[in-house]
Amino acid sequence: MNIIIYISKIIIFYVSALKIKLFLFEKIVNKKYKLSVLDSFSFYLIKMTPTILSLATLFLVFFAPYLRFGEAKTYELSEVKLNSHILQESIARQINENPEAGWEATINPRFSNFTVGQFKRLLGVKQTPRSELSSAPVVTHPKSLKLPKDFDARTAWSQCSTIGRILDQGHCGSCWAFGAVESLSDRFCIHFDMNVSLSVNDILACCGLLCGAGCAGGTPFSAWIYLAHHGVVTEECDPYFDQIGCSHPGCEPTYRTPKCVKKCVNGNQLWETSKHYSVKAYTVNSDPQDIMAEVYKNGPVEVAFTVYEDFAHYKSGVYKHITGFALGGHAVKLVGWGTSHEGEDYWLLANQWNTNWGDDGYFKIKRGTNECGIENAVTAGLPSTKNIVREVTDMDVDADVSF
């Protein structure tokens, strides 16, 4: 918003100078030559151009806060709005008194002291560059695949402890990294029977401009590209939480991205040998059937969606946007699907806002209607055998899992 104001001031200064020049030029020409009616009208149109530019600029300055920008449909909000509390009794009441809402709202303790501006910082999904999306493989699955009416990765692969974990991203806009790393951790267990927790801190600190801006946000698909090309170390090697128990950079008022040190905190581990890779990055076709098949065959995926003010108040039920401004894009892990007692189809997702938010850290969102864009941005990758030292019985170590 500040950039728009600065640019607007420059434009207004420029057009003011241009109007003075045109006025003087017309006087000189009129004095030397007698202008026809047509010439005078042409001069009038030229003189009006700066005025039109000025009006357009003023419109941009005053109405920019209410305009939508980009695919995430986020709003530039006023300072008053940004400094107001994200949790509002009026929002919770509006949802709970609406018989058509289908979900319950509450004043979640996770955000009891958060302003709208602080909450927005958690929503770290940025738009993926078109050049990356255009070259991204899009996975589809045979329609003949029989899928269950409901599915939960936590029970389907109960031996995988990572699938059922709810983490906490702290005060950092690192959701894009969490969704990718958590999904890949789950897939290592599903495909290779390895219960390994991979490091969010590695990708957050070391992906750099490839992924975006660390705690200020990044792109989920770029995160998966990093996992394929550079790999990610274990949580034991590079933990997200520091020695005093608060998240990087949640203890810092500036939400600074942690530094990339490329060194395990445990001196007995080596950074490069701790790396785990994905085979390649891909997107999943937005058809719900393809998304379900991908999760059913290969495990949880990362999804991104637009977050509105009411989502902060979610407690239980099948979420649908009811009220409030769009605040930004958020990434989470999709672990299953089902149908509610009221007959409403839903996706089951794990958030990384701790267990004191939502339904013990989980939430459900309407399935099959692309609610908040949830079915438009599904990204994943398969685990690679590269750099893995283990005994293999039934699997050729030189072969990676396939679609």
UniProtKB/TrEMBL annotation:
Signal peptide: none annotated. The chain crosses the membrane at residues 6-24, 44-67. Residues 147-382 form the Peptidase C1A papain C-terminal domain. Its EC number is 3.4.22.1. Keywords: Disulfide bond, Glycoprotein, Hydrolase, Membrane, Protease, Signal, Thiol protease, Transmembrane, Transmembrane helix. CDD domains: Peptidase_C1A_CathepsinB. It comes from the Eukaryota. One of its GO terms (biological process) is proteolysis. SMART domains: Pept_C1. It holds the Pfam family Propeptide_C1. GO terms for molecular function: cysteine-type endopeptidase activity. Belongs to the peptidase C1 family. This is Putative cathepsin B. It comes from Medicago truncatula.
